[in-house]
Amino acid sequence: MPNLNIVLGVGGGIAAYKAALLLRLFTEAGHQVTVIPTDASTNFVGVATWEALSGRPATNNVFDAVDQVNHVRIGHEADLIVVAPATADLLAPKEPPARTTVVAGLVVDGIKVEIEAVAYKPV
Hints:
alpha/beta, three-stranded parallel beta sheet, Rossmann fold, 5 helices, disordered C terminus
């Protein structure tokens, strides 16, 4: 499998810490991973942790790198966008359009994405 440019959107919830394992598995497989945590998720795992594990800047602010339109560019350059945990609030926000977070914006701003919900039972 070729190395992919992956965006890992991290939703807010206690399961956010499990996304760190997912990040580790992606990077060990040789993929470049950019982490986009929601504000709520940083209550569980901080931005510094995501940056240390990925070796890349982690942003959760649409005004970061405004000159590069970072919140749109990151999504357009991605080969794969993974949202984990995909909390109900992130997937179905109460206020449309679903651009209330950088993660939601990545998924809806002009990116052709197939959404597949995956449920699993923790072991």
